[in-house]
Structure formats: structure tokens, C-alpha cells
Design goal:
This protein is α/β, with parallel strands linked by helices. The chain has a single domain (3-115), classed as 2,3-Dihydroxybiphenyl 1,2-Dioxygenase, domain 1, CATH 3.10.180. The protein has helices at residues 20-31, 74-83; strands spanning 12-17, 34-37, 42-46, 51-56, 67-70, 87-95, 98-104, 110-115. The strands form 2 sheets. A 4-stranded mixed sheet has the order 1-4-3-2, covered by helices on one side. It has a 4-stranded mixed sheet with strand order 5-8-7-6, with helices on one face. The model has no long low-confidence stretch (mean pLDDT 88).
Length: 123
Amino acid sequence: MPQSQHNRRIDYIEFSTTDIARTKNFYSNVFGWEFKDFGPQYTAFKDGRLNGGFALTDNVPSGGPLVVIYATDLEALEQAVKSAGGRITKETFTFPGGRRVHIADPDGNELAIWSDNLPTSDS
């Protein structure tokens, strides 16, 4: 894709972390992201569509941008978040077009996961 098509689009997302190894473990286990270290204080990730990074810091500030990740199976990712040391910060809710849940990684970075797949009813 030519650079002109990248104009005004999200190109890279950078987070803070207090523990790079824990961060890499969390995001690789939950979302399958791949990492490349650039020294002991920075790691970059690829998720298949978007690139970003995590910078080592003494504390993680709250209130950064909300990154929203798509999921075909929202419940499976909720379970993966909990199993990998993350937490649910806003329970799953329905909105026009799908469902969404907000989560926090082990450092407190908040993300949202959404799906347009609605659960099937047993009735």
C-alpha cells in the first residue's frame, strides 16, 4: 500500500509497561501477538494488521487511548484474559452491531474487545 493511503490512519500504538516479559506473555497468550525486542526497555508487537510497542516505565498512566480488538468468540477471549492475569473492567454489553467487553492487562492498560457474533439462545 502506498504511503499516501496510510495518511490519517492509525499506524502504530504504544503502551507503557512495568514488566516487558509479563506483557509479552499476556498479549501473546491472549491475542497471539508476535514481539521483537529493541533492547531491554522496549518491545514492538505485530498482530497481523497493526504494529505497536511497549515501553518500560516505572508506572503506567491511566486514561490513554482505548484500543478496540475484534473477536469472533468474545467469551473465549474473556476467559483467556482472566487466565493470563488480566481483568474485566466493564462487563460484556450489547450495542447496535454487536457486543463489547472492556479489559485491563496486568499493568492496567485498558482495551476493549468486540464481536458482531451474538450468542445463540437455547430456547
